[in-house]
Description:
Blueprint: H1 12-22, E1 29-30, H2 47-57, H3 73-84, H4 89-92, E2 96-102, H5 103-118, E3 130-135, H6 140-147, E4 151-156, E5 158-159, E6 164-165, H7 167-176, E7 182-185, H8 199-211, E8 215-220, H9 230-233, H10 235-243, E9 247-252, E10 264-270, H11 274-292, H12 298-308, H13 310-341, H14 349-353, E11 358-360, H15 365-375, E12 377-378, E13 384-386, H16 395-407
Parallel strand pairs: 1-12, 3-4, 3-7, 7-8, 8-9
Antiparallel strand pairs: 2-10, 5-6, 9-10, 11-13
The structure holds 4'-deoxy-4'-aminopyridoxal-5'-phosphate (PMP).
Amino acid sequence: GMALRPLPQIGHIFQLTASYKADPFPQKINLGVGAYRDDDNKPWVLPVVKKATNILVNDPAVDHEYLPITGLPQFTSAAAKLILGKDSPAIAEERVSSVQTISGTGANHLGALFLSRFYAFPRDGGREKTVYLSNPTWANHRAIFNNVGIQHVDYQYWDPKTNGLAFKELLDTLNTAPDRSVFLLHPCAHNPTGVDPTQAQWEQISDVLLKKHHYAFLDCAYQGFASGDLDKDAWAVRRFVEKGVPMLVCQSFAKNAGLYGERVGALHIVAPTKEAADKVKSQLSILSRSEISNPPAHGARLVALILNDPALFEQWKDDIRTMANRIIAMRKELHRLLTEELKTPGNWDHIVNQIGMFSFTGINSEASKALTEQAHVYLTTNGRISMAGLNTKNIRYFAENLDKVVRA
Ligand code: PMP
């Protein structure tokens, strides 16, 4: 057979889902899911996506030819305006290179691959190409960078004492890293903590990035899904562009359009000049060609329709608010149950202060395991819960059992 070296296990999170599915207990809850669920715990096809799908199905001009290597132009240009703002100076000056990618994961990969080839990493003293990742971060970041020969170091992000941002430590790392280091930042709805810097903190972060000539690798997987407001969730990205921080941004339509399996995303690299942007685009095109040849068409067509049609765009914003508001309502209800009804020991304000799909509860791995083993509540052992797994029918059961393990 093949000469394979010992293979590591894949994702803990996929194992969790399998155990949940196999569990016959009627009140079981899956809080590991990285996807939105409605109040009946069902996946939700956005009404605007259904409408756009019908338009596409009935459009005689739609065929199954290849898209251009860099993607559907009506998609990439509208996607750039969505994240950078329609009046973005960088777009007006034609210095943004946008490429359609295999969702946010593909955008992270292509961004990392591009930097591994073309970025002047600080290499003094035999230093390896390195990216700074938040601790904790999305479980895939490490693998994505390591795959393209970029090592990672962690910067402290979560402060277990406050269940909030370790802001001083973050600034210290920014200040002490060698000039021109690459920092991965989540511009909204940090995964897995749900903790974001305030606008004032983003100002300070971007000031240090500029002073140190660092590069900002912005991974934005939750625009609109976090607060319900597309512009609000893009604030940090747009502010970075305005201030001239060297940067790229990874964009995903998995969460905000519920198009998880369609793999719709984009990478936008903001260059200092149009000439530089043209070169970047040509290199991105060469890299993408060797990996996927042509990106998938269907999801990009759906999103292009929604972004470019004013009525569909308005409806999408309604659908986004439906998702964001349900999640925010679950945060408030969980907070109320714990603090007012159950009087659970400890401070639970972080449940309502955190944003997006995930919440870091602050419970330890024993408590997390006890929830799974005793109450059939499935969550990762770092205490992260997906708020989307909670609904009006199961939230009380969850709160009561969380209360129990906290008191144990
Ligand atoms: N980045 C972050 C921070 C994420 O949380 C996710 C989704 N879990 C992604 C990127 C990529 O997701 P997708 O490839 O489905 O767009």
